[in-house]
Amino acid sequence: MKGKKSSVINRVAKKGVFPYQFAFTLLIPLRNIFLSPKKLIERLDLKDDYNVLELGVGPGYFSVKVAKSLSNGKLILADIQQEMLDIAQKRLTKKKVFNVEYHLCNGIDFPFEDDSFDVVYMVTVLGEVENKEGYIKEFYRLLRPRR
Ligand SMILES: C[S@@+](CC[C@H](N)C(=O)[O-])C[C@H]1O[C@@H](n2cnc3c(N)ncnc32)[C@H](O)[C@@H]1O
Predict the structure, then answer these.
(1) How far apart are CA 69 and CA 31, in angstroms?
(2) pLDDT of 7 over the 70 cut
(3) Whose CA is nearest to atom 14 of ligand 1?
(4) What share of the chain is helix, strand, coil (3-state, %, to 5)?
(5) If exposure means fewest CB atoms within 10 Å of the residue's CB, which of 64, 109, 113, 142 is most exposed?
(6) What is the pLDDT of residues 41-85, one digit of tens each?
């Protein structure tokens, strides 16, 4: 038990996948100083009918407002930890956000067809991805030409 505890703490402080046990720290509104959901939506230049993929959703800090901005579109939420997806789903359901789908992914490639999305984004995830180049190459396949 002690080993597991120290491995979780190591993953927060050092390298590795962010542990779901600390998901609550990603929901602190102080984060808005660096990037708020509103600012993210402006940067992504979203249209309300876009199909959007968020990778490494964690507990869904950004997802609620992004999904709400897609009144005629859909937000697909993906993460390599089922526990993170469960936390995100609980939060979004509580906030009555239903234009979303949840996908457990393998961190390498994605079970989506070519040209599936108008926008793919992630926040504080790339540092945890092992093959960054291959991962980003997948985005080219998934993204359709911008409208
Ligand atoms: C530091 S958290 C950030 C969560 C969220 N993006 C945020 O900013 O609140 C990183 C998340 O990315 C997930 N993750 C790590 N590697 C991933 C990968 N290759 N593909 C998808 N998700 C990944 C982790 O499970 C974790 O939930």
Answers:
(1) 20
(2) no
(3) 56
(4) 45, 15, 40
(5) 113
(6) 999 999 999 999 999 999 999 999 999 999 999 999 999 999 999
Which atom in ligand 1 lies closest to the alpha carbon of residue 129? 19
Mean of all residue pLDDT scores within the chain = 93
Task: Calculate the alpha carbon distances from 119 to 4, 16, 126 in Å.
Answer: 37, 26, 16
C-alpha span between 10 and 54 (Å, rounded): 26
In single-letter form, the type of residue at position 70 comes to L
Locate all alpha helices (DSSP H) within the chain, ordered by sequence: 2-13, 37-44, 63-69, 82-94, 132-142
Element (H, E) at 77: strand 74-79
The domain spans of the chain are: 27-142
Query: What residues are in contact with ligand 1 under a 6 Å CB criterion?
Result: 17-18, 26, 55-58, 61, 78-81, 84, 105, 107, 123-125, 128-129
CA of 64 to the centre of ligand 1 (A): 16
Q: Which of 3-7, 52-56, 106-110, 115-119 has the lowest mean pLDDT?
A: 3-7
